[in-house]
């Protein structure tokens, strides 16, 4: 019902153009994907291959951080099989281990992998690293790293940075200094990554404290087994993703430096921090789709949840929020593909996604009750405990920097709202529309 009402609203004819003088004919705006026969053929190919090759232990195997060693090795083995087909780097050049696919085929591939519960393969940070290597890597680095990463032969953890944040060099916890041709790294930072242990760490380090922030850092891709690296995974809401890495007099060879030693921050902004906000989105939001399915199939007191008026309103809100984010992500992807400059656009989508995720977690609890908090180890948990993981992640992603909400500040800066502090402070509330950045928890 929710999808039908929403599609009806979007499908209403708008007075956007007239066919001729005196004509009342109106044209409609269509926000839906329409796949060609060739694209649907590729979808069947992907779905058939996944159905024949995806081990049941890997399919929806729960949180990666909770996997035992045997299951993790099965996941890695399957990842390497995907890499052999070029599907871990679908649009990258074939000569560097990519699949050479079109953007449309890559979108279909992502959709089918999500439907098979393989989101973790899409969230490991390897895509922005490949972009960094293609942009700034030497020929030696491309030959050394690209086939390895694209083939699923190496796991990656990267330093935690929030899209839209200004670089504060005084708070950057990792420093690097030259010693001959090599570098020495000291300090510690929070890293994001999946699995039991990384093969490589992608980090940002301060190289010149006296230089402007745009020229004060370097980025390194270094083996996690170098002497002096200590990795810990503290207890947190998302222990499978957040790790503490300490560097104690770590000697790093020069081939681990990506680009020059004064352009780390610009490179991170162009790759890691560009994020998925410029990729074409999937045709549906899996969490919202699963919630709607749960509401259609679950009864309480003899009444299907989806027919309860109050819950209908909540489900409609979740669906609309999801579709708004999807439409804006399509806009961003179109702008990037056509060479248009994105200013506040990526921050806008990142902010809306954070707010939508937090609001969705609230709606899930209203609809599912205690079942939303059952993890994948409980046989009663719906959808293999995925909603319990979503509950935790919706909180951890809200404000990882611990400061002001950087996306709202970035939007205000670019559109000229409020008073912007060049030092990176939050904008003044003056001039900001009341509803523009309203916290979803307050709105609830």
Task: Walk me through what this model shows.
- With 444 residues, the protein is α+β, with helices and mostly antiparallel strands.
- It folds into 3 domains: 37-122, Acyl-CoA dehydrogenase/oxidase, N-terminal domain (Butyryl-Coa Dehydrogenase, subunit A, domain 1); 157-268, Butyryl-CoA Dehydrogenase, subunit A, domain 2 (Beta Barrel); 276-443, Butyryl-CoA Dehydrogenase, subunit A, domain 3, CATH 1.20.140.
- The chain contains 13 helices and 12 strands.
- The protein has helices at 2-11, 37-53, 69-84, 103-115, 126-136, 139-150, 264-270, 286-297, 309-337, 345-368, 386-396, 406-415, 440-443, and strands spanning 13-14, 27-28, 156-159, 174-179, 182-193, 200-206, 217-223, 229-232, 242-252, 257-258, 299-300, 303-304.
- Strands 3, 4, 5, 6, 7, 8, 9 and 10 form an 8-stranded mixed beta sheet that branches. A two-stranded antiparallel sheet has the order 1-2.
- A hairpin with a 2-residue loop joins strand 11 (299-300) and strand 12 (303-304).
- Helix 5 (126-136) packs antiparallel against helix 6.
- It is globular and about 75 Å long.
- 35% of the residues are buried.
- The model is unreliable at 5-23 and 420-444 (pLDDT under 50).
């Amino acid at each position: 019902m929710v999808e039908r009402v929403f599609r009806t609203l979007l499908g209403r004819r708008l007075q956007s153009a007239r066919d001729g003088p005196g004509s009342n004919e109106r044209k409609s705006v269509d926000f839906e994907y329409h796949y060609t026969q060739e694209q649907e053929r590729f979808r069947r190919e992907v779905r058939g291959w996944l159905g024949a090759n995806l081990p049941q232990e890997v399919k929806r195997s729960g949180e990666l951080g909770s996997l035992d060693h045997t299951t993790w090795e099965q996941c890695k083995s399957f990842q390497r099989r995907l890499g052999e087909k070029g599907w871990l780097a679908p649009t990258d050049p074939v000569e560097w281990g990519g699949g050479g696919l079109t953007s449309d085929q890559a979108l279909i591939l992502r959709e089918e992998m999500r439907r098979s519960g393989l989101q973790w393969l899409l969230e490991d940070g390897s895509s922005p690293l490949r972009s960094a290597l293609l942009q700034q890597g030497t020929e030696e680095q491309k030959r050394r790293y690209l086939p390895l990463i694209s083939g699923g032969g190496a796991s990656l953890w990267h330093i935690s940075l929030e899209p839209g944040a200004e670089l504060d060099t005084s708070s950057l916890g990792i420093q690097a200094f030259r010693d001959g041709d090599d570098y020495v790294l000291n300090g510690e930072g929070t890293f994001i990554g999946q699995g039991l242990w990384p093969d490589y760490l992608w980090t940002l380090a301060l190289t010149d404290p006296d230089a402007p922030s745009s020229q004060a850092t370097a980025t390194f891709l270094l083996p996690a087994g170098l002497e002096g690296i200590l990795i810990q995974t503290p207890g947190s809401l998302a222990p499978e993703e957040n790790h503490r890495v300490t560097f104690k007099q770590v000697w790093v060879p020069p081939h681990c430096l990506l680009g020059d030693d004064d352009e780390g921050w610009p490179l991170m902004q162009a790759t890691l921090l560009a994020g998925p906000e410029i990729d074409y989105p999937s045709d549906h939001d899996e969490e919202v789709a699963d919630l709607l399915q749960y509401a259609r199939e679950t009864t309480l007191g003899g009444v299907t949840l989806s027919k309860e008026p109050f819950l209908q309103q909540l489900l409609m809100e979740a669906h609309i929020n999801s579709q708004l984010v999807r439409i804006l992500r399509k806009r961003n992807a179109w702008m990037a593909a056509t060479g248009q400059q994105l200013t506040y656009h990526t921050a806008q989508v990142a902010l809306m996604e954070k707010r939508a995720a937090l609001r969705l977690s609230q709606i899930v609890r209203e609809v599912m009750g205690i079942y939303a908090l059952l993890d994948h180890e409980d046989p009663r948990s719906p959808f293999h405990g995925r909603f319990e993981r979503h509950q935790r992640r919706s909180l951890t992603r809200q404000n990882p920097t611990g400061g002001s909400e950087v996306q709202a500040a970035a939007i205000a800066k670019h559109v000229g709202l409020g008073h912007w502090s060049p030092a990176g402070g939050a904008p003044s509330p003056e001039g900001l529309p009341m509803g523009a950045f309203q916290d979803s928890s307050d709105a609830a």
